[in-house]
Amino acid sequence: MMQKEALLPEIGVITDIRIDTPDVKTFRVVTPDGKKPFLHVPGQCAMLSIPGVGEALFSITSSPTNTEFLEFSIKKCGCVTSFLHSIEPGQYVTIRGPYGNGFPVESAFLGKDLLFVAGGIGLAPLRSVINYCRHYRDKYGKIDIVYGSRSMQDLVDYREIIDEWCKEEGINVHLTIDREQPEWSGHVGFVPNFVKELGFDTGKTAVLCGPPIMIKFTLAGLQEIGFQKDQIYTTLEMRMKCGIGKCGRCNLGDKFICKDGPVFRFDQLEELPDEY
Amino acid sequence: MKKIALQNLPKLFSAISESKALYLPVDTESGAEFRLYREGDTLSEACNTNRSAKDFFFPQVEDMAEFKVEGKKIEVLDIRRESEEFVIFGARACDVKSFEILDSVFLADPVDTYYKNRREHVTVISLACNFPEETCFCSTFGIDAASPAGDVAAWIIDEELYMTALTEKGEAFLSAHAALLSDADESKVDKKKEEIAEICHRLPLQNLPVEHFKAEKLMEHFNDPKWAELSQSCIGCGTCTFVCPTCQCFDIRDFDTGNGIQRYRCWDSCMYSDFTQMAAAQPRLTQLERFRQRFMHKLVYHPANHEGTYGCVGCGRCLAKCPISMNIAKVIKEIGGEK
Protein backbone atom coordinates (compact mmCIF):
# COMPACT_ATOMS: atom_id res chain seq x y z
CA MET A 1 0.00 0.00 0.00
CA MET A 2 1.33 3.40 -0.92
CA GLN A 3 0.98 6.44 1.31
CA LYS A 4 -2.37 8.23 1.09
CA GLU A 5 -2.46 10.73 -1.79
CA ALA A 6 -4.32 13.98 -1.21
CA LEU A 7 -5.20 14.36 -4.90
CA LEU A 8 -6.89 10.95 -5.09
CA PRO A 9 -10.57 11.60 -4.30
CA GLU A 10 -13.12 9.55 -2.39
CA ILE A 11 -16.59 8.65 -3.62
CA GLY A 12 -19.57 10.75 -2.56
CA VAL A 13 -23.23 10.08 -3.24
CA ILE A 14 -25.70 12.87 -3.94
CA THR A 15 -28.72 11.97 -1.80
CA ASP A 16 -30.78 15.13 -2.21
CA ILE A 17 -30.96 18.03 -4.63
CA ARG A 18 -32.87 21.14 -3.58
CA ILE A 19 -33.78 23.73 -6.19
CA ASP A 20 -33.00 27.05 -4.51
CA THR A 21 -33.33 29.57 -7.31
CA PRO A 22 -33.57 29.42 -11.12
CA ASP A 23 -29.77 28.91 -11.26
CA VAL A 24 -28.78 27.61 -7.80
CA LYS A 25 -29.24 24.07 -6.48
CA THR A 26 -28.15 22.69 -3.13
CA PHE A 27 -26.60 19.22 -3.21
CA ARG A 28 -26.42 16.89 -0.22
CA VAL A 29 -23.39 14.56 -0.22
CA VAL A 30 -22.67 11.46 1.89
CA THR A 31 -20.25 8.54 1.59
CA PRO A 32 -21.53 5.34 -0.13
CA ASP A 33 -22.25 3.91 3.35
CA GLY A 34 -24.35 6.93 4.21
CA LYS A 35 -21.96 8.88 6.45
CA LYS A 36 -20.74 12.46 6.40
CA PRO A 37 -17.60 12.47 4.18
CA PHE A 38 -15.35 14.46 6.57
CA LEU A 39 -15.30 17.10 9.31
CA HIS A 40 -14.74 20.76 8.48
CA VAL A 41 -14.80 24.25 9.95
CA PRO A 42 -17.14 26.94 8.58
CA GLY A 43 -15.69 28.61 5.48
CA GLN A 44 -13.68 25.61 4.29
CA CYS A 45 -14.10 24.15 0.81
CA ALA A 46 -14.07 20.80 -0.96
CA MET A 47 -13.22 19.56 -4.44
CA LEU A 48 -16.14 17.90 -6.18
CA SER A 49 -15.78 16.19 -9.49
CA ILE A 50 -17.62 14.25 -12.10
CA PRO A 51 -14.92 12.17 -13.84
CA GLY A 52 -14.73 13.12 -17.49
CA VAL A 53 -16.33 16.51 -16.88
CA GLY A 54 -13.92 18.07 -14.41
CA GLU A 55 -13.14 18.89 -10.83
CA ALA A 56 -13.91 22.21 -9.12
CA LEU A 57 -13.72 23.75 -5.66
CA PHE A 58 -16.90 24.64 -3.78
CA SER A 59 -17.48 26.10 -0.36
CA ILE A 60 -19.23 23.79 2.07
CA THR A 61 -22.51 25.46 2.94
CA SER A 62 -23.70 23.08 5.65
CA SER A 63 -22.61 23.76 9.20
CA PRO A 64 -20.00 21.55 10.91
CA THR A 65 -22.70 20.95 13.53
CA ASN A 66 -24.60 18.91 10.96
CA THR A 67 -23.35 15.37 11.66
CA GLU A 68 -25.13 13.61 8.80
CA PHE A 69 -24.01 15.10 5.50
CA LEU A 70 -22.24 17.92 3.66
CA GLU A 71 -24.17 20.43 1.56
CA PHE A 72 -23.06 22.56 -1.36
CA SER A 73 -25.11 25.38 -2.87
CA ILE A 74 -23.95 25.64 -6.46
CA LYS A 75 -24.75 28.21 -9.10
CA LYS A 76 -24.85 27.02 -12.69
CA CYS A 77 -22.15 28.96 -14.51
CA GLY A 78 -19.46 26.71 -16.02
CA CYS A 79 -18.72 23.14 -17.18
CA VAL A 80 -18.77 21.27 -13.89
CA THR A 81 -21.63 23.29 -12.39
CA SER A 82 -23.81 22.85 -15.49
CA PHE A 83 -23.29 19.12 -15.33
CA LEU A 84 -24.11 19.03 -11.61
CA HIS A 85 -27.33 20.87 -12.37
CA SER A 86 -28.31 18.09 -14.80
CA ILE A 87 -27.89 15.14 -12.40
CA GLU A 88 -30.42 13.35 -10.21
CA PRO A 89 -30.20 11.99 -6.65
CA GLY A 90 -28.25 8.74 -6.46
CA GLN A 91 -25.52 10.10 -8.71
CA TYR A 92 -21.98 9.39 -7.53
CA VAL A 93 -19.41 12.18 -7.53
CA THR A 94 -15.87 12.32 -6.23
CA ILE A 95 -15.01 14.45 -3.24
CA ARG A 96 -11.81 15.49 -1.46
CA GLY A 97 -11.07 18.01 1.26
CA PRO A 98 -11.63 19.93 3.41
CA TYR A 99 -9.41 22.72 2.14
CA GLY A 100 -8.56 26.18 3.42
CA ASN A 101 -8.48 28.00 6.72
CA GLY A 102 -12.16 28.73 7.41
CA PHE A 103 -13.59 31.49 9.59
CA PRO A 104 -12.06 32.11 13.04
CA VAL A 105 -15.23 30.93 14.82
CA GLU A 106 -13.27 29.61 17.80
CA SER A 107 -10.94 32.60 18.15
CA ALA A 108 -11.52 36.11 16.76
CA PHE A 109 -15.32 35.69 16.44
CA LEU A 110 -15.85 34.54 20.06
CA GLY A 111 -17.99 36.94 22.07
CA LYS A 112 -18.37 39.37 19.14
CA ASP A 113 -21.49 40.87 17.64
CA LEU A 114 -21.44 39.57 14.08
CA LEU A 115 -22.63 41.26 10.90
CA PHE A 116 -22.93 39.01 7.85
CA VAL A 117 -23.37 40.70 4.48
CA ALA A 118 -24.03 38.53 1.43
CA GLY A 119 -25.09 39.02 -2.16
CA GLY A 120 -26.55 36.30 -4.40
CA ILE A 121 -24.71 32.98 -4.22
CA GLY A 122 -22.33 34.70 -1.78
CA LEU A 123 -24.59 33.37 0.96
CA ALA A 124 -23.28 29.82 0.34
CA PRO A 125 -20.07 30.06 2.42
CA LEU A 126 -21.79 32.27 5.02
CA ARG A 127 -24.64 29.84 5.64
CA SER A 128 -22.12 27.45 7.20
CA VAL A 129 -20.78 30.00 9.66
CA ILE A 130 -24.23 31.51 10.39
CA ASN A 131 -25.68 28.13 11.30
CA TYR A 132 -22.57 27.29 13.34
CA CYS A 133 -23.01 30.51 15.34
CA ARG A 134 -26.72 29.78 15.77
CA HIS A 135 -25.85 26.34 17.16
CA TYR A 136 -23.33 27.73 19.68
CA ARG A 137 -25.46 30.79 20.38
CA ASP A 138 -23.89 31.64 23.79
CA LYS A 139 -20.43 31.97 22.30
CA TYR A 140 -21.38 34.96 20.14
CA GLY A 141 -23.17 38.30 20.60
CA LYS A 142 -25.93 39.73 18.48
CA ILE A 143 -26.12 38.50 14.88
CA ASP A 144 -27.16 40.71 11.97
CA ILE A 145 -27.59 39.32 8.48
CA VAL A 146 -27.93 41.54 5.43
CA TYR A 147 -28.72 39.52 2.34
CA GLY A 148 -29.65 40.72 -1.10
CA SER A 149 -30.21 39.24 -4.52
CA ARG A 150 -31.46 40.25 -7.97
CA SER A 151 -35.02 39.18 -7.21
CA MET A 152 -37.02 37.39 -4.56
CA GLN A 153 -36.66 34.16 -6.58
CA ASP A 154 -32.86 34.55 -6.51
CA LEU A 155 -32.57 34.55 -2.71
CA VAL A 156 -30.75 31.31 -1.82
CA ASP A 157 -31.95 29.36 1.26
CA TYR A 158 -35.11 31.50 1.33
CA ARG A 159 -37.20 28.97 3.30
CA GLU A 160 -34.49 28.48 5.93
CA ILE A 161 -34.07 32.24 6.27
CA ILE A 162 -37.81 32.86 6.74
CA ASP A 163 -38.67 29.76 8.80
CA GLU A 164 -35.60 29.61 11.03
CA TRP A 165 -33.26 32.60 11.00
CA CYS A 166 -35.96 35.29 11.06
CA LYS A 167 -37.74 33.62 13.98
CA GLU A 168 -34.70 33.35 16.22
CA GLU A 169 -34.12 35.77 19.07
CA GLY A 170 -30.92 37.78 18.86
CA ILE A 171 -30.77 37.44 15.09
CA ASN A 172 -31.84 40.29 12.82
CA VAL A 173 -32.29 39.43 9.16
CA HIS A 174 -32.41 42.28 6.63
CA LEU A 175 -33.37 41.15 3.14
CA THR A 176 -33.29 43.23 -0.01
CA ILE A 177 -33.82 42.71 -3.72
CA ASP A 178 -32.50 44.81 -6.61
CA ARG A 179 -35.84 45.76 -8.21
CA GLU A 180 -39.50 46.09 -7.11
CA GLN A 181 -41.66 42.96 -7.38
CA PRO A 182 -45.44 42.80 -6.81
CA GLU A 183 -45.18 39.95 -4.27
CA TRP A 184 -42.29 41.58 -2.35
CA SER A 185 -43.04 43.87 0.59
CA GLY A 186 -39.48 44.08 1.89
CA HIS A 187 -36.63 46.44 1.14
CA VAL A 188 -35.64 47.21 -2.45
CA GLY A 189 -32.13 48.37 -3.35
CA PHE A 190 -28.53 47.25 -3.58
CA VAL A 191 -26.74 45.66 -0.64
CA PRO A 192 -24.02 48.32 -0.09
CA ASN A 193 -26.57 51.17 0.21
CA PHE A 194 -28.81 49.05 2.42
CA VAL A 195 -25.89 48.39 4.79
CA LYS A 196 -25.19 52.11 5.02
CA GLU A 197 -28.88 52.92 5.58
CA LEU A 198 -29.08 50.37 8.38
CA GLY A 199 -26.00 51.98 9.94
CA PHE A 200 -24.49 49.32 12.19
CA ASP A 201 -22.68 49.69 15.50
CA THR A 202 -18.96 49.84 14.67
CA GLY A 203 -18.07 47.40 17.45
CA LYS A 204 -19.24 44.51 15.26
CA THR A 205 -17.14 42.05 13.30
CA ALA A 206 -18.30 42.00 9.68
CA VAL A 207 -18.12 39.18 7.13
CA LEU A 208 -18.72 39.95 3.44
CA CYS A 209 -19.29 37.57 0.56
CA GLY A 210 -20.77 38.27 -2.83
CA PRO A 211 -19.92 39.60 -6.27
CA PRO A 212 -16.71 41.72 -6.39
CA ILE A 213 -18.66 44.92 -7.04
CA MET A 214 -20.82 44.35 -3.95
CA ILE A 215 -17.73 43.62 -1.82
CA LYS A 216 -16.00 46.75 -3.06
CA PHE A 217 -18.87 49.13 -2.27
CA THR A 218 -19.91 47.43 0.97
CA LEU A 219 -16.33 47.62 2.23
CA ALA A 220 -16.22 51.33 1.37
CA GLY A 221 -19.63 51.86 2.98
CA LEU A 222 -18.64 50.09 6.21
CA GLN A 223 -15.45 52.14 6.39
CA GLU A 224 -17.51 55.31 5.90
CA ILE A 225 -19.63 54.50 8.93
CA GLY A 226 -16.52 53.84 11.02
CA PHE A 227 -15.53 50.18 10.59
CA GLN A 228 -11.80 49.40 10.45
CA LYS A 229 -10.33 46.98 7.89
CA ASP A 230 -9.23 44.57 10.61
CA GLN A 231 -12.89 44.12 11.67
CA ILE A 232 -14.00 42.98 8.22
CA TYR A 233 -13.53 39.50 6.75
CA THR A 234 -14.21 38.09 3.32
CA THR A 235 -13.73 34.83 1.49
CA LEU A 236 -12.01 34.77 -1.90
CA GLU A 237 -12.53 32.71 -4.99
CA MET A 238 -9.89 31.83 -7.57
CA ARG A 239 -9.33 29.05 -10.08
CA MET A 240 -7.84 25.99 -8.36
CA LYS A 241 -6.79 22.54 -9.44
CA CYS A 242 -5.11 20.91 -6.46
CA GLY A 243 -6.49 22.64 -3.36
CA ILE A 244 -3.27 21.98 -1.44
CA GLY A 245 -0.96 24.83 -2.48
CA LYS A 246 0.99 23.05 -5.23
CA CYS A 247 -0.59 23.66 -8.65
CA GLY A 248 0.19 27.38 -8.41
CA ARG A 249 -3.08 28.73 -9.80
CA CYS A 250 -4.46 30.51 -6.75
CA ASN A 251 -1.16 32.09 -5.75
CA LEU A 252 -1.69 35.63 -4.52
CA GLY A 253 1.49 37.30 -3.29
CA ASP A 254 3.09 34.99 -0.74
CA LYS A 255 -0.27 33.29 -0.09
CA PHE A 256 -2.18 30.47 -1.72
CA ILE A 257 -5.92 31.04 -1.48
CA CYS A 258 -6.61 27.30 -1.24
CA LYS A 259 -4.52 26.80 1.89
CA ASP A 260 -3.82 30.24 3.43
CA GLY A 261 -7.34 31.42 2.56
CA PRO A 262 -10.02 31.53 1.32
CA VAL A 263 -10.88 33.62 4.41
CA PHE A 264 -8.92 36.86 4.74
CA ARG A 265 -9.28 40.04 6.76
CA PHE A 266 -9.21 43.23 4.69
CA ASP A 267 -6.10 44.52 6.46
CA GLN A 268 -4.35 41.29 5.35
CA LEU A 269 -5.57 41.74 1.77
CA GLU A 270 -4.11 45.22 1.75
CA GLU A 271 -0.63 43.64 1.91
CA LEU A 272 -1.37 41.49 -1.14
CA PRO A 273 -1.69 42.16 -4.88
CA ASP A 274 -5.30 42.90 -5.86
CA GLU A 275 -5.37 40.05 -8.38
CA TYR A 276 -8.51 38.35 -7.07
CA MET B 1 37.85 10.45 -3.87
CA LYS B 2 37.63 7.89 -6.69
CA LYS B 3 38.40 8.12 -10.37
CA ILE B 4 37.89 6.31 -13.66
CA ALA B 5 39.45 6.90 -17.07
CA LEU B 6 36.96 8.46 -19.52
CA GLN B 7 37.63 5.62 -21.96
CA ASN B 8 36.27 3.22 -19.31
CA LEU B 9 33.03 5.17 -18.78
CA PRO B 10 31.07 2.83 -21.11
CA LYS B 11 31.97 -0.01 -18.74
CA LEU B 12 30.69 1.98 -15.78
CA PHE B 13 27.47 2.91 -17.63
CA SER B 14 26.87 -0.74 -18.56
CA ALA B 15 27.48 -1.81 -14.97
CA ILE B 16 25.03 0.80 -13.63
CA SER B 17 22.35 -0.03 -16.18
CA GLU B 18 22.53 -3.72 -15.28
CA SER B 19 20.78 -3.05 -11.98
CA LYS B 20 19.11 0.35 -12.42
CA ALA B 21 17.69 2.55 -15.14
CA LEU B 22 20.45 5.00 -16.09
CA TYR B 23 19.70 8.43 -17.55
CA LEU B 24 22.39 10.74 -18.86
CA PRO B 25 22.67 13.78 -21.14
CA VAL B 26 23.42 12.70 -24.70
CA ASP B 27 23.75 14.80 -27.84
CA THR B 28 20.72 14.66 -30.12
CA GLU B 29 20.00 16.48 -33.39
CA SER B 30 18.36 19.30 -31.46
CA GLY B 31 20.92 19.54 -28.68
CA ALA B 32 21.66 17.69 -25.45
CA GLU B 33 18.81 15.86 -23.67
CA PHE B 34 18.59 13.42 -20.78
CA ARG B 35 17.88 9.96 -22.18
CA LEU B 36 17.73 6.37 -20.98
CA TYR B 37 21.19 4.93 -21.54
CA ARG B 38 21.62 2.69 -24.54
CA GLU B 39 24.79 0.73 -25.32
CA GLY B 40 27.15 3.07 -27.16
CA ASP B 41 25.76 6.33 -25.75
CA THR B 42 28.37 8.83 -24.63
CA LEU B 43 28.05 11.61 -22.08
CA SER B 44 27.28 14.93 -23.78
CA GLU B 45 29.83 17.67 -23.34
CA ALA B 46 27.16 20.37 -23.55
CA CYS B 47 26.95 22.70 -20.58
CA ASN B 48 23.27 21.89 -20.17
CA THR B 49 20.38 19.94 -21.65
CA ASN B 50 17.53 21.68 -23.51
CA ARG B 51 14.96 20.41 -21.07
CA SER B 52 15.69 20.49 -17.39
CA ALA B 53 15.97 17.47 -15.13
CA LYS B 54 12.63 18.18 -13.41
CA ASP B 55 10.99 15.73 -15.84
CA PHE B 56 12.41 12.85 -13.80
CA PHE B 57 10.26 13.66 -10.78
CA PHE B 58 7.55 15.86 -12.28
CA PRO B 59 6.96 14.61 -15.83
CA GLN B 60 5.25 16.81 -18.39
CA VAL B 61 2.23 14.50 -18.42
CA GLU B 62 1.41 11.95 -15.77
CA ASP B 63 -1.60 9.71 -15.11
CA MET B 64 -2.97 10.16 -11.61
CA ALA B 65 -6.05 7.99 -11.36
CA GLU B 66 -8.64 6.11 -13.36
CA PHE B 67 -12.38 6.07 -12.92
CA LYS B 68 -14.85 3.40 -13.91
CA VAL B 69 -18.22 4.97 -14.58
CA GLU B 70 -21.37 2.83 -14.78
CA GLY B 71 -24.67 4.65 -14.84
CA LYS B 72 -24.73 6.82 -11.75
CA LYS B 73 -21.90 4.87 -10.11
CA ILE B 74 -18.22 5.76 -10.08
CA GLU B 75 -15.23 3.76 -8.93
CA VAL B 76 -11.83 5.37 -8.24
CA LEU B 77 -8.82 3.26 -9.25
CA ASP B 78 -5.48 4.02 -7.62
CA ILE B 79 -3.03 3.42 -10.46
CA ARG B 80 0.11 4.48 -8.61
CA ARG B 81 3.01 2.02 -8.79
CA GLU B 82 6.25 1.95 -6.85
CA SER B 83 8.94 3.64 -8.99
CA GLU B 84 11.96 1.65 -10.17
CA GLU B 85 15.39 2.60 -8.84
CA PHE B 86 17.17 4.92 -11.27
CA VAL B 87 20.34 6.92 -11.66
CA ILE B 88 20.73 10.40 -13.14
CA PHE B 89 24.32 10.73 -14.29
CA GLY B 90 25.68 14.17 -15.16
CA ALA B 91 23.16 16.64 -13.72
CA ARG B 92 24.63 20.12 -13.35
CA ALA B 93 24.78 22.09 -10.09
CA CYS B 94 21.81 24.28 -11.11
CA ASP B 95 19.55 21.33 -11.89
CA VAL B 96 20.52 19.55 -8.66
CA LYS B 97 19.63 22.69 -6.71
CA SER B 98 16.28 22.81 -8.52
CA PHE B 99 15.37 19.44 -6.95
CA GLU B 100 15.61 21.08 -3.55
CA ILE B 101 13.26 23.86 -4.68
CA LEU B 102 10.78 21.37 -6.14
CA ASP B 103 11.01 19.38 -2.89
CA SER B 104 9.95 22.43 -0.90
CA VAL B 105 6.69 22.49 -2.87
CA PHE B 106 5.89 18.84 -3.57
CA LEU B 107 7.14 17.34 -0.30
CA ALA B 108 5.44 20.00 1.86
CA ASP B 109 2.46 18.67 3.80
CA PRO B 110 0.29 17.14 2.35
CA VAL B 111 3.06 15.36 0.45
CA ASP B 112 2.68 14.73 -3.29
CA THR B 113 3.18 10.96 -3.46
CA TYR B 114 3.59 10.90 -7.25
CA TYR B 115 6.64 13.14 -6.91
CA LYS B 116 7.95 11.61 -3.69
CA ASN B 117 7.79 8.10 -5.11
CA ARG B 118 10.28 8.99 -7.87
CA ARG B 119 12.39 11.26 -5.72
CA GLU B 120 13.01 8.47 -3.20
CA HIS B 121 14.24 6.05 -5.83
CA VAL B 122 16.90 8.18 -7.48
CA THR B 123 20.66 8.37 -7.12
CA VAL B 124 21.98 11.65 -8.48
CA ILE B 125 25.51 11.79 -9.89
CA SER B 126 26.20 15.48 -10.48
CA LEU B 127 28.85 16.86 -12.78
CA ALA B 128 30.80 20.09 -12.28
CA CYS B 129 30.64 22.56 -15.21
CA ASN B 130 34.06 22.84 -16.84
CA PHE B 131 32.80 25.47 -19.23
CA PRO B 132 29.94 27.56 -17.78
CA GLU B 133 28.31 29.65 -20.50
CA GLU B 134 27.45 33.30 -20.98
CA THR B 135 23.82 32.58 -20.10
CA CYS B 136 24.78 30.99 -16.76
CA PHE B 137 24.17 32.89 -13.54
CA CYS B 138 23.93 30.20 -10.89
CA SER B 139 26.32 32.02 -8.55
CA THR B 140 23.73 34.80 -8.29
CA PHE B 141 21.76 32.28 -6.23
CA GLY B 142 24.76 30.99 -4.26
CA ILE B 143 25.18 27.87 -6.39
CA ASP B 144 28.73 26.72 -7.07
CA ALA B 145 29.08 25.27 -10.58
CA ALA B 146 32.39 23.73 -9.46
CA SER B 147 30.94 21.91 -6.43
CA PRO B 148 27.56 20.47 -7.37
CA ALA B 149 25.38 18.75 -4.76
CA GLY B 150 23.74 15.34 -5.28
CA ASP B 151 24.60 11.86 -4.00
CA VAL B 152 27.92 11.79 -5.83
CA ALA B 153 29.73 14.84 -7.23
CA ALA B 154 31.92 14.33 -10.30
CA TRP B 155 34.55 16.29 -12.21
CA ILE B 156 36.04 15.67 -15.64
CA ILE B 157 39.74 16.48 -15.50
CA ASP B 158 41.96 15.71 -18.46
CA GLU B 159 41.01 12.18 -19.47
CA GLU B 160 39.60 11.10 -16.14
CA LEU B 161 36.35 11.37 -14.20
CA TYR B 162 36.76 12.08 -10.48
CA MET B 163 33.96 11.20 -8.08
CA THR B 164 33.26 11.75 -4.42
CA ALA B 165 30.27 10.55 -2.39
CA LEU B 166 28.20 13.21 -0.64
CA THR B 167 25.50 10.98 0.85
CA GLU B 168 25.03 7.39 2.02
CA LYS B 169 23.35 6.60 -1.29
CA GLY B 170 26.42 8.03 -3.02
CA GLU B 171 28.75 5.87 -0.95
CA ALA B 172 26.69 2.80 -1.78
CA PHE B 173 26.93 3.74 -5.46
CA LEU B 174 30.73 4.10 -5.37
CA SER B 175 31.22 0.87 -3.45
CA ALA B 176 28.86 -1.02 -5.79
CA HIS B 177 31.12 -0.03 -8.67
CA ALA B 178 34.42 -0.12 -6.77
CA ALA B 179 35.91 -2.68 -9.16
CA LEU B 180 35.90 -0.11 -11.97
CA LEU B 181 37.19 2.78 -9.84
CA SER B 182 40.59 3.58 -8.42
CA ASP B 183 41.59 5.82 -5.53
CA ALA B 184 42.43 9.41 -6.34
CA ASP B 185 43.75 12.40 -4.45
CA GLU B 186 41.87 15.66 -4.29
CA SER B 187 44.56 18.05 -5.43
CA LYS B 188 43.59 17.91 -9.11
CA VAL B 189 39.93 18.47 -8.21
CA ASP B 190 40.83 21.44 -6.02
CA LYS B 191 42.78 22.95 -8.89
CA LYS B 192 39.86 22.34 -11.27
CA LYS B 193 37.48 24.07 -8.89
CA GLU B 194 39.73 27.13 -8.93
CA GLU B 195 39.80 27.11 -12.72
CA ILE B 196 35.99 26.93 -12.88
CA ALA B 197 35.66 29.73 -10.32
CA GLU B 198 37.94 31.83 -12.50
CA ILE B 199 35.70 31.30 -15.56
CA CYS B 200 32.53 32.01 -13.55
CA HIS B 201 34.06 35.22 -12.29
CA ARG B 202 34.36 36.49 -15.85
CA LEU B 203 30.79 35.63 -16.92
CA PRO B 204 28.54 38.65 -17.56
CA LEU B 205 25.54 37.60 -15.42
CA GLN B 206 27.26 35.98 -12.47
CA ASN B 207 26.27 38.55 -9.87
CA LEU B 208 22.85 39.95 -10.62
CA PRO B 209 21.43 42.33 -7.97
CA VAL B 210 18.91 39.79 -6.73
CA GLU B 211 19.42 40.83 -3.11
CA HIS B 212 17.26 43.89 -3.79
CA PHE B 213 14.20 41.66 -3.90
CA LYS B 214 12.82 41.52 -0.41
CA ALA B 215 9.62 39.98 0.93
CA GLU B 216 8.90 43.09 2.98
CA LYS B 217 8.97 45.11 -0.26
CA LEU B 218 6.44 42.77 -1.92
CA MET B 219 3.92 45.47 -2.84
CA GLU B 220 6.63 47.93 -3.84
CA HIS B 221 8.03 45.42 -6.33
CA PHE B 222 4.53 44.47 -7.47
CA ASN B 223 3.63 48.08 -8.18
CA ASP B 224 6.91 48.89 -9.97
CA PRO B 225 5.96 50.78 -13.16
CA LYS B 226 8.74 48.99 -15.09
CA TRP B 227 6.65 45.79 -15.39
CA ALA B 228 4.65 47.47 -18.17
CA GLU B 229 7.66 47.97 -20.42
CA LEU B 230 9.31 44.66 -19.51
CA SER B 231 6.19 42.67 -20.34
CA GLN B 232 5.31 44.57 -23.51
CA SER B 233 6.93 42.19 -25.97
CA CYS B 234 6.04 38.96 -24.12
CA ILE B 235 3.95 36.79 -26.44
CA GLY B 236 2.85 34.47 -23.64
CA CYS B 237 4.22 31.34 -25.31
CA GLY B 238 5.16 29.76 -22.00
CA THR B 239 8.51 28.44 -23.27
CA CYS B 240 10.31 29.88 -20.24
CA THR B 241 8.05 27.96 -17.87
CA PHE B 242 8.46 24.70 -19.75
CA VAL B 243 12.26 24.75 -19.90
CA CYS B 244 12.52 26.09 -16.34
CA PRO B 245 13.80 23.53 -13.81
CA THR B 246 11.80 25.07 -10.96
CA CYS B 247 8.48 25.99 -12.61
CA GLN B 248 6.04 23.50 -11.10
CA CYS B 249 2.54 24.79 -11.85
CA PHE B 250 0.26 22.10 -13.18
CA ASP B 251 -3.19 21.41 -14.53
CA ILE B 252 -5.37 18.40 -13.73
CA ARG B 253 -7.57 17.11 -16.55
CA ASP B 254 -9.73 14.14 -17.43
CA PHE B 255 -9.57 12.09 -20.62
CA ASP B 256 -12.26 9.70 -21.78
CA THR B 257 -10.44 6.61 -23.06
CA GLY B 258 -13.69 5.05 -24.24
CA ASN B 259 -13.12 2.45 -21.55
CA GLY B 260 -13.16 4.71 -18.53
CA ILE B 261 -11.86 8.08 -17.49
CA GLN B 262 -8.20 8.81 -17.03
CA ARG B 263 -7.27 11.71 -14.76
CA TYR B 264 -3.86 13.15 -15.56
CA ARG B 265 -1.83 16.16 -14.67
CA CYS B 266 0.34 18.13 -17.03
CA TRP B 267 2.59 21.15 -16.86
CA ASP B 268 0.79 24.45 -17.06
CA SER B 269 2.00 28.00 -17.25
CA CYS B 270 1.12 31.19 -15.40
CA MET B 271 1.98 32.91 -18.70
CA TYR B 272 -1.30 31.62 -20.20
CA SER B 273 -4.58 33.53 -19.79
CA ASP B 274 -6.41 30.24 -19.34
CA PHE B 275 -4.40 29.60 -16.16
CA THR B 276 -6.59 31.77 -13.95
CA GLN B 277 -9.70 32.03 -16.17
CA MET B 278 -12.88 31.21 -14.25
CA ALA B 279 -16.42 30.87 -15.53
CA ALA B 280 -17.25 34.38 -14.40
CA ALA B 281 -13.97 36.18 -13.72
CA GLN B 282 -10.33 36.60 -14.75
CA PRO B 283 -8.04 38.05 -12.07
CA ARG B 284 -5.03 38.48 -14.42
CA LEU B 285 -6.47 40.23 -17.43
CA THR B 286 -3.39 41.12 -19.51
CA GLN B 287 0.04 39.70 -20.24
CA LEU B 288 1.49 42.32 -17.89
CA GLU B 289 -0.16 40.65 -14.89
CA ARG B 290 0.81 37.17 -16.05
CA PHE B 291 4.41 38.15 -16.81
CA ARG B 292 4.73 39.89 -13.45
CA GLN B 293 3.27 36.86 -11.64
CA ARG B 294 5.99 34.55 -12.96
CA PHE B 295 8.88 36.73 -11.85
CA MET B 296 7.30 37.92 -8.62
CA HIS B 297 6.72 34.28 -7.71
CA LYS B 298 10.34 33.31 -8.31
CA LEU B 299 11.98 36.39 -6.82
CA VAL B 300 9.63 37.50 -4.04
CA TYR B 301 6.78 35.11 -3.20
CA HIS B 302 8.76 31.86 -3.18
CA PRO B 303 11.61 33.24 -1.03
CA ALA B 304 9.03 34.78 1.32
CA ASN B 305 7.69 31.29 1.99
CA HIS B 306 10.97 29.36 1.88
CA GLU B 307 13.49 31.11 4.09
CA GLY B 308 14.87 33.31 1.35
CA THR B 309 15.48 30.61 -1.25
CA TYR B 310 14.74 32.07 -4.69
CA GLY B 311 12.70 30.09 -7.19
CA CYS B 312 15.46 30.35 -9.82
CA VAL B 313 18.77 28.50 -10.13
CA GLY B 314 20.36 30.57 -12.91
CA CYS B 315 20.55 27.71 -15.42
CA GLY B 316 20.04 30.16 -18.27
CA ARG B 317 17.63 27.97 -20.27
CA CYS B 318 15.00 30.72 -20.45
CA LEU B 319 17.66 33.17 -21.69
CA ALA B 320 18.62 30.81 -24.46
CA LYS B 321 15.09 29.80 -25.48
CA CYS B 322 12.89 32.89 -25.17
CA PRO B 323 11.76 33.86 -28.70
CA ILE B 324 11.73 37.57 -27.86
CA SER B 325 14.89 37.55 -25.73
CA MET B 326 13.17 38.68 -22.57
CA ASN B 327 14.38 36.94 -19.46
CA ILE B 328 14.75 36.88 -15.71
CA ALA B 329 18.23 38.43 -15.84
CA LYS B 330 16.77 41.57 -17.45
CA VAL B 331 13.96 41.59 -14.91
CA ILE B 332 16.38 41.31 -11.99
CA LYS B 333 18.48 44.17 -13.38
CA GLU B 334 15.50 46.45 -14.05
CA ILE B 335 13.33 45.81 -11.02
CA GLY B 336 16.26 45.02 -8.77
CA GLY B 337 17.70 48.42 -9.50
CA GLU B 338 20.82 47.98 -11.66
CA LYS B 339 20.54 49.78 -14.99
Mean pLDDT over the full residue set of chain A: 95
Give the overall shape of chain A: globular
Helix percent of chain B reads 25-40%
Reported CATH architecture of the largest domain in chain A: 3-Layer(aba) Sandwich
Radius of gyration of chain B: 22 Å
Largest sheet of chain B: 8 strands, mixed
Class from secondary-structure proportions of chain A: alpha/beta
Which range does the strand content of chain A fall in? 25-35%
Biggest sheet of chain A, strands in spatial order? Answer: 10-9-8-7-11-12-15
Poorly predicted ranges of chain A (pLDDT <50, ≥5 residues)? none
Textual characterization of the structure:
- The complex is a heterodimer of chains A (276) and B (339).
- By secondary structure, chain A is an alpha/beta fold.
- Chain A has helices at 79-86, 123-135, 158-165, 191-198, 212-224, 257-260, 266-269, and strands spanning 10-21, 24-30, 45-50, 54-59, 70-75, 92-99, 114-119, 143-149, 171-177, 187-188, 205-209, 232-235, 251-252, 255-256, 263-265.
- Chain A has a seven-stranded mixed beta sheet with strand order 10-9-8-7-11-12-15, with helices on both faces.
- In chain A, strand 7 (114-119), helix 2 and strand 8 form a beta-alpha-beta unit.
- Chain B folds into two domains: 2-202, no CATH class; 210-336, no CATH class.
- Chain B has helices spanning 9-19, 93-106, 113-119, 168-176, 187-202, 218-222, 226-231, 239-243, 287-305, 317-321, 328-336; strands spanning 2-5, 21-28, 31-36, 61-70, 73-78, 86-91, 122-127, 152-157, 160-165, 182-183, 250-256, 261-267.
- In chain B, the strands form two sheets. In chain B, strands 3-2-6-7-8-9-1-10 form an eight-stranded mixed beta sheet, sandwiched between helices. A four-stranded antiparallel beta sheet of chain B has the order 5-4-12-11, with no helix packed on it.
- Chain B is globular.
- Chains A and B meet through strand 6 of A and strand 4, strand 5, helix 3, helix 6 and strand 11 of B.
